[in-house]
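Friendly challenge for the regulars: who can give me the structure tokens for this chain first? No prize, just bragging rights.
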Amino acid sequence: MFEEKTIDRNQIIGFVLIAAILFGMSFWASELQPDTPASETAAAQVEESVPEAPVSDAIPAAVTTQDSTTPAPEEVVLENEVVKYTFTTAGAQIQQVQLKDYQRYDGEDLYLVNGRQSMVGAHEGVFTAIVSKGNDGSQTITMTSGATTWTYTLREGYGLTWALDVEGAANVTLDWKQDGIRNEKSLTNEAQNTSTYFWDAVDESDDYLSDGRDDEETVSNIGWVAHKQQYFSSIFASETPFTTAHLLTKTPDASDTGHTRLFRSELTLAGSNGGVHAKGLWYHGPNQYTTLKDYGQHFDEIIPFGWGIFGWISKGAVIPMFNFFDDFGWNYGFIIFLMALIIKLVLSPLTFSSYKSMAKMRVLKPELDEINERHKDSDAAKKQQEVMALYQKAGVNPLGGCIPQLLQFPILIAMFRFFPASIELRQKSFLWADDLSAYDSIFEFGQWFSIPFYGDHVSLFTILMAISTYLYTKFNNSMTPQSGNSMMQQQMVIIQYLMPFMLLVWFNNYASGLSFYYFVSNILIFAQQWAIRKFFIDEKAIHAQLMANKASGKTSKFQKRMNDMLEAQKEAGNRRTRRMDK
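First reply, four minutes later:
Bragging rights claimed.
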């Protein structure tokens, strides 16, 4: 019933690039040695199934024709320190929602709703409103028209509790329409990170419609629905699950640069005891992990930190570390540097193990060259068997440099997902970057042209990351004497130049905080490898130990398994040859 979760194109490209760089470097070294606020429109309809009655009784007061005694619509405001809700009695709708602590990318006030929005009542109906205040500081507005009553209460925070009572209705379908207002510098990235999320109350799991393209789905037993944008969301939750929900997202016209996605959610509430009586929470606020998690309704699942182990690393390690440093009030660029440093220190045993394995391969270079020379005109399989025999006798694991790097891969992906999803970095500056959650730009040429895939600006942090990646691959190459495998050498040279270029293109529109993090990580890798080589690795001693292992004939378990595999391959080849001879 639910659509399988998908990853957008840029994320797939990012994963592929990270994986390719990681394994490419390791394999090479071991083998060679994302205007004014536009109005948000909303329509509200109630579809009620009521018992048969005379026509005059069947028409709710909320939809009767307005006469001269009908009061004019009024606006009522409920607000606290962080959010301002403006209601209109015309249809009992929300007119505006302003988040006081945030601004749009252009410095204007940030609205999640800027126009009529409601989920019940016809547009002609004018409700009677009563506003009250509680002893706990809460503010409540009760709007009534005929058989329909909406009650909203605002306390601290962004959440607005709601209650709906429709007497005599068998069920009510709430038609929630919302146009996602653009709030970020990069409309493309914001739109790609905008979709409808929902919570399955039976399976207790979240799901969502496709990011970045039109999609719709009908589901049942839904606890909440979120119109989620990159950094802000509107979430409508009901204590009694919606029996059905028809969800739809559409892409605005190409000329509409003020909106990200067009949302529509038709949510059905079942009646009981002579009417529909429901209540829940309506959240309009930031996609901040701790804020959403505190509501205890799994709202935090809308933040795309990644699935499986990637999400666990982000939520269990990266976010607590980030919040710890954030409590000191330090600049976010400095915090990113500290995070990169600590992660590298934690991973240093794996880095050391990887480097040591590559050092073992490097000191065996003379012996490998001798084998290449001896078998340059012979069968490649025979040469490979002799190479593996050398590894076996010397006790070297040719994959020893790759495995530690593989173990670091989940952390790389977790960081790749963390930075573009962290609202804490939004509009926080560092050096020339005015917003670490968006791309940095030292030159913009959009008034003249735009380069496909690259964009209309130049990101300096991306350039620095690409250069450091190039230097890192070149550094690894210089540390390892070239082998006789000319084809492999050519492939590695291509990777050395191609990977930095691809990073330069694809990361130009990503969060500058992410590019800065990878740049710092590359610099720290340089420092780590220099320190390991200078103070911890004695290649002469390693070579002597390998020669001693070779002389003793000691075989490691890994080498024994590799030898058995080679023997099995050799025997299978012999059997095929014998069958062909027959």
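Residues 1-7, 25-66 have pLDDT under 50 and may be disordered. The domain at 46-303 is CATH 2.70.98.90 (Beta-galactosidase; Chain A, domain 5). Your move, everyone else.
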